[in-house]
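U., I forgot to send this yesterday:
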Amino acid sequence: MISVLYGTDEFRISEKIKSIRASLSSDDLGGINNTFLNASESNFGELLLTAAVVPFMSERRLVVGRDFIKSFSSGSTSSTATNGLKIKSEDVIQSLSDLPNSTVLVLQEGDLNSRNPLLQRLKKISEVENFSKLRHVELVSWIKERTKFYGGHIENSAAVLMANYIGFDLRTVDSEITKLVLYKNPEMIEESDVVNLVSYTGQQNIFKVVDTCIGKKVMEAIRSSANLVQSGESPFGIVRLLERQIRLLIRAKILSSKKISKTEMSKRLSLVGYPLQKTLEQEKLLTLKELKIMHGLIVASDLRVKKGQMDETASLQTLIVEIGSV
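Result:
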């Protein structure tokens, strides 16, 4: 059995591999028949030799190879095998076709060019799945299905709110779902639960801090950050959220200068709903030079704390004053 899992959605790919591994776990023998290889450390010849080995005291052997297909660029029909020699895509296909039935080979890739010559050939002898980034409506459905997977139930409006707040970071979404299910099970997860329990919703309070800094309302920004600390966020965490937002604003400013559509910007920034709206609003109020200065101030704030010149709270307040003065 050969599976090709590729695309930009790393979380769903890793979950698929977990599922495949779990299906073979009865004969796992502590993982002795599981091998994971990366193209940055091994070549295709080593991958093929490993996949050809029969399992030890078991019926199946799992071999996961990462980024090997990518070594065959869209304009190349060969890659490096053993001893620096080249191996052609047709030879790879022949070797894969000759693998023992006991081998379960998973080829894991990131984003691949659909014209990759090896990928095209692999479609004839393997199961190929493309895990592209979910659309917003698909993300909402995924949240509801994931909640069911953990034994919980969530209102559609609550799932929409989670999608709007967190966006397409499925690893974070998954973490928040498990927390909500543990808290509410067996009751239905409602919008109020998302507002009160999802830590990522602190992002919308960061918008207020950034808004007040941009508007030169320094004292209001300090009060907003203090409220975040009182709600359980650390000064270090607030600085990280500020840094994330400033980075997003820099990217949004560059994309805007290239006349990129809002829909495309949503995809590239991995933002939807309220976070996207606020980011695009804030981007218009600042120049790229001002944003880069702000980012530099955040770096300087980190250094102050690391060198012991200020504690985290004092450094955060100083940072807010500095950003408000840009």
